[in-house]
């Protein structure tokens, strides 16, 4: 673990890596032409939630690790002056303004795209970004994990990371024992300190009877810059892929590790059920959908009988 002196010198997190190379097979045929990250939660693409979360946290550089077939992501995140000019010519300034606000401007924002042609694992995806990361620790955001809350999950983590001893911090949530096989799971060590859970390592998708805890790791990571050294030369792990979990566990004894229990609600938007839950939750936040939600209650109640 880091010393108190090291706490005060912890470098700022300036880079966020977005692994977006997955082909979204669980959402076919919808993802045949549209990347899963651009599927809408009502009128807001899933990816936009993640971009806004990184911006809120003050990240300077975003690196998208994508796939050659997903050129629509690059088109989406960049500004489209021609489209906005057409909208303004039609008097739709409000829509053009919202598009401009959502876009990442290559002249003002530090945005990079790198390719991961083969699905070699999350660890491999993170390593693909190494040539473009700024010095110091890095954040990793999985857009499939939508976390709704008053404050962005990454912002909460970075606030805690500034004074936390460990070099690696992972977002965690409690799950049922029969669900741990779908997650990386924290190996606790010692007592919790507020939202922080000291840990000695992580186990990728353990059998329920062998899980070291019920604290599942979800798609937000703040990682010491040494993660790239630990990923290099790492042998394939579970599923024959380069697992980020394995690299974090490898460095845990050296730089320290803790879980972070975020305040928001997490939705697994890599699944249809999770996407539906996220859409309904997001609709409840906007009064213009109240009438529709009210109309559906009798239908849902009848279906549940």
Automatic annotation (TrEMBL):
InterPro entries: GalU_uridylyltTrfase_bac/arc (IPR005771), NTP_transferase_dom (IPR005835), Nucleotide-diphossugar_trans (IPR029044). PANTHER family: UTP--GLUCOSE-1-PHOSPHATE URIDYLYLTRANSFERASE. Pfam families: NTP_transferase. It comes from Salipiger marinus. Belongs to the UDPGP type 2 family. One of its GO terms (biological process) is UDP-alpha-D-glucose metabolic process. Its EC number is 2.7.7.9. Keywords: Nucleotidyltransferase, Transferase. One of its GO terms (molecular function) is UTP:glucose-1-phosphate uridylyltransferase activity. It comes from the Bacteria. This is UTP--glucose-1-phosphate uridylyltransferase. It catalyses: alpha-D-glucose 1-phosphate + UTP + H(+) = UDP-alpha-D-glucose + diphosphate. Residues 21-255 form the Nucleotidyl transferase domain.
């Amino acid at each position: 673990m880091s010393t108190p002196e090291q706490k005060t010198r912890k470098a700022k997190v300036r880079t966020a890596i977005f692994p977006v190379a997955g082909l979204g097979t669980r959402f076919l045929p919808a993802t045949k032409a549209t990347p899963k990250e651009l599927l809408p939660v009502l009128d807001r693409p899933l990816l936009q939630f993640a971009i806004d979360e990184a911006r809120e946290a003050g990240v300077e550089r975003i690196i998208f690790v994508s796939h050659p077939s997903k050129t629509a992501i690059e088109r989406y995140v960049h500004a489209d002056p021609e489209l906005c000019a057409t909208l303004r010519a039609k008097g739709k300034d409000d829509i053009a303004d919202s598009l401009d606000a959502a876009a990442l401007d290559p002249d003002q924002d530090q945005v990079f795209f790198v390719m991961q042609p083969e699905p070699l694992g999350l660890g491999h995806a993170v390593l693909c970004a190494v040539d473009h990361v700024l010095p110091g620790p890095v954040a990793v955001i999985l857009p499939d994990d939508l976390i709704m809350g008053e404050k962005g999950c990454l912002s909460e983590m970075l606030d805690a990371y500034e004074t936390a001893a460990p070099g690696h911090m992972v977002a965690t949530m409690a799950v049922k024992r029969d669900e741990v096989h779908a997650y990386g799971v924290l190996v606790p060590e010692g007592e919790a300190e507020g939202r922080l859970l000291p840990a000695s390592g992580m186990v990728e998708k353990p059998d329920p009877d062998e899980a070291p805890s019920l604290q599942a790791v979800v798609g937000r990571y703040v990682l010491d810059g040494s993660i790239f050294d630990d990923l290099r030369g790492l042998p394939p792990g579970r599923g024959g892929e380069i697992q980020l979990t394995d690299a974090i566990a490898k460095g845990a004894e050296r730089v320290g590790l803790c879980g972070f229990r975020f305040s928001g609600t997490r939705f697994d938007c890599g699944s249809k059920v999770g996407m539906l839950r996220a859409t309904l939750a997001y609709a409840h936040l906007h009064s213009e959908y109240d009438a529709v939600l009210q109309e559906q209650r009798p239908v849902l109640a009848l279906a549940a009988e």
